[in-house]
């Protein structure tokens, strides 16, 4: 778990439900989300019922989707805010219940972000929701400490979930000394 690291490859916000995602070089993470994004503004499709302040998705997951389905979501049609390279889909989910820093902001992973039919409708391409399943849809996170996040910033683990750390240690010991 302490080996998780990644780098911000893309940043996206959208001012309202259904509006195209807008690429950013940097964003300001504040209490409640990202400045200029639909969920902070309360204009998202699921606002205020589905509180997901900031969304993260792994670049590796988007690459798998392209390889397997031919669907290219690197244009932001995945509807996630922060695309991180170096944290594959499984590792990204290891950030749930952890505190991590990206650039000048600190986040806490709260839950998986599975796709919905609305994502596919807004993306305008059949198969998008299905492609984002199986841990490819990313995660939700809350802003713990405000700050600026920029393309190229490093993702750094601050505080791990004890259950995840325990599993990680057990796996390493099993690998090192054999056994089931």
Automatic annotation (TrEMBL):
Pfam families the record matches: MOSC
GO molecular function, one term: pyridoxal phosphate binding
Superkingdom of origin organism: Archaea
InterPro entries: MoCF_Sase_C (IPR005302), MOSC_domain (IPR052716), Pyrv_Knase-like_insert_dom_sf (IPR011037)
Segments for region (Disordered): 1-24
MOSC domain location: 19-158
PANTHER family attached to this UniProt entry: METAL-SULFUR CLUSTER BIOSYNTHESIS PROTEINS YUAD-RELATED, MOSC DOMAIN-CONTAINING PROTEIN
Name of the protein: MOSC domain-containing protein
Organism of provenance: Halogeometricum pallidum JCM 14848
